[in-house]
Amino acid sequence: MFDLVEAFHRPASIREALRLLHAGGRRARIVAGGTDVVVQADPDIRSLVDITRLGLTYIRRAGGGWAIGATTTMAEIEHSAALRTLAGGILVAAAKECGSVQLRNMATLGGNLANASPAADTAAPLLVLEAQVAIARERSRRKMALSDLFLKPGETALGRALLVEILIPVPPRGARTGWSFQKLGRTESDISLVNTAAGLQVDAKGVCKWVRIALGAVAPVPLRARAAEALITGRKLDSSLLEQAGEEAAREASPITDLRATAGYRREMCRVLVKRALAECVERAGYSL
Ligand SMILES: Cc1cc2nc3c(=O)[nH]c(=O)nc-3n(C[C@H](O)[C@H](O)[C@H](O)COP(=O)(O)OP(=O)(O)OC[C@H]3O[C@@H](n4cnc5c(N)ncnc54)[C@H](O)[C@@H]3O)c2cc1C
After folding, report:
1. Class assignment of domain 7-50?
2. In whole angstroms, what separates CA 232 from the centre of its chain?
């Protein structure tokens, strides 16, 4: 699989990892859990830089919100009691849906985002949470909105940089707030045909004060359904409005046909999952339609 790989490095610091990446040029590749790198088996790779010993495996509070190190595994997120309290546990729910137990023990959050699959399960909840990513280059550090990270399938704005951590600001809280993550896959452990995440806040009269909706596997990159959000913001929620929001989100999608599903099926399931996610948010917010 990696017959042409000449070196496997295990640096102990971010600085050393970046030096090795720089030295290896286009033929060097970061490896975290390896669950994407191994199956992709790019024949151009000559050196692998293992980043699992850089001290980037953590889940901690930061500025009222959360910071999650890039090499934190899906299993660690899935079993994090602390993250279950964040936004109704939508990130925990997404991590729990990633592949099999064995896969989740290896697969990292940073790898899920850096791999830039439109179907990455953690992308939609993190877009709803308006997450940022911290990235490191040899001579600079910066943060960027997660929504700016994804460029096209398999391509991010990272270039040769290392994704260091994922930063989640304090989300809306309170009695009338609800969250939901929805995934449709062919089998329990397969990647998403469609996934959606949503967060919503209503007032006592059922008027939507705040809403975020994100879609996965229905466009070249995971994305926010901004027209659907605009449609329901400031309006009194009822079943018909949620149905319209699902239809609006489906219009914002631009799915493809591949071996897993047709574009038409994905668009239709996008409509269904968005409506389902919003209905679950409303229910969890304690409001009856
Ligand atoms: C059988 C199977 C089932 C799967 N099911 C799902 C699923 O249900 N849902 C889902 O979302 N995914 C699924 N995946 C995809 C994969 O497991 C995830 O995307 C995983 O989170 C990738 O993380 P990793 O640590 O293994 O990444 P790696 O394979 O180590 O790396 C992936 C890519 O990201 C780069 N990279 C990794 N970490 C960083 C970093 N910190 N900074 C910069 N670049 C980095 C690597 O160079 C590589 O290009 C599945 C994969 C397989 C093989």
Report:
1. alpha beta
2. 24
Find the 116 Cα to ligand 1 centroid distance in Å. Answer: 9
- Beta bridge pairs of residue 49: 9, 30
Predicted TM-score (pTM) of the model is: 0.97
154 CA to centre of ligand 1 in angstroms: 11
Confidence of residue 1 (pLDDT cuts 50, 70, 90): low
Q: Which CATH class for the 177-284 domain?
A: alpha beta
- Looking at the CA of residue 36, tell me the nearest atom of ligand 1: 29
Which protein residue's CA is at the shortest distance from atom 37 of ligand 1? 111
- Give the Å distance between the CA of 244 and the centre of ligand 1: 34
Spell out the domain ranges in the chain: 7-50, 59-168, 177-284
* 59-168 has CATH 3.60.15.10 classification: no
User: pLDDT, tens digit, for every residue of 172-190?
Assistant: 988 899 999 999 999 888 9
| 3-state secondary structure at position 4 | coil
Asked if 160 contacts 137 with a C-beta cutoff of 8 angstroms, the reply is yes
Average pLDDT for 216-231? 98
